[in-house]
Amino acid sequence: MASPEHDLAPLDPVLDKDGVRLTVDDAIATVTLTNPAKRNAQSPALWRALAEAGRLLPGTVRVVLLRAEGKSFSAGLDRQAFTPEGFDGEPSFLDLARGGDDELDATIAEYQEAFTWWRRRDVVTVAAVQGHAIGAGFQLALACDLRVVADDVQFAMRETSLGLVPDLTGTHPLVGLVGYARALEICATGRFVTAEEAVSCGLANIAVPREQLDAAAGDLASAILAAPRDAVIETKALLQGAHGRSYEDQRAAERQSQARRLRDLAGLGE
Q1: In what order do the strands lie in the sheet with 63-68?
Q2: Other C-beta atoms within 10 Å of 208: how many?
Q3: Which bin fits 113, alpha (ψ -120 to 50), beta or left (φ > 0)?
Q4: Cβ distance 127 to 148 under 8 Å?
Q5: Nearest Cα to Cα of residue 224 among 142, 144, 143, 133
């Protein structure tokens, strides 16, 4: 199985702009944050590039690895966003605040697109997280299905401390993973969650020494690829819907999903 970082020669990127690089090696795609000098701080341009990466995934891809160059996964939103000038060519946050409700809602919805496609059902997404993953960085890691973390990881949700709320899709998976009470405490205090706690409370699937992070993420990708694609897709859909169903409805969903799988295996699928 090919590793996420090609062993023989670098892969030609499908996308490489605004701090985001996408490479594809058959069934595995790798999305890399590529601005370590700024600790992979995030901006609207980076969010548009992340959304574009999702749109560019070929149909062969089954697993997407999300990783970052440098010591930090992502230090969160670039603080330039909070200046009156904002980013070149972008409305500043102050300008957005002065706009109408519909305009503000549409802008935030556009930003969220960078964080939503990671949960689509035809791929399994794995974040390999090291160092700081703060605010938007934490939410980007939460956007993925699975998280492998280095032993130096530090998650923190700092939006509340800045007078804001987490609005990049992170609240739903956070509550689902750790429960309401701990999610509220993590967000309201803005404290760091370390690797040991992340694994114990369900935020991370596994923690490894920093130098083993990429290999561990690649091993997890290979293990996922060992199962038939349609069975993984069906299982992911079944689990994603579990929280919104009653016990009896989930039983029915299991029966329906299994019936589809049995018909497909018997060559009787539609």
Answers
A1: 15-17, 20-25, 28-33, 63-68, 124-129, 146-150, 206-208
A2: 20
A3: alpha
A4: yes
A5: 144
Asked if residue 35 lies in contact with residue 42, where contact means CB atoms within 8 angstroms, the answer is no
Calculate helix-pair angle for 136-143, 101-116, nearest 10 degrees: 50
Torsion of CA 118, 119, 125, 131, to 10 degrees: 70
- 150: β partners: 208
What's the Cα-to-Cα distance from 88 to each of 30, 49, 58, 80, rounded to whole Å? 28, 16, 32, 10
Please say whether the dihedral angle defined by the alpha carbons of residues 22, 166, 220 and 124, taken in this order, is positive or negative.
negative
- Each residue's pLDDT, cut to its tens digit, for the chain (270 residues) gives 444 444 446 789 999 999 999 999 999 999 999 999 999 999 999 999 999 999 999 999 999 999 999 999 999 999 888 787 778 888 787 888 888 999 999 999 999 999 999 999 999 999 999 999 999 999 999 999 999 999 999 999 999 998 999 999 999 999 999 999 999 999 999 999 999 999 999 999 999 999 999 999 999 999 999 999 999 999 999 999 999 999 999 999 999 999 999 999 998 866
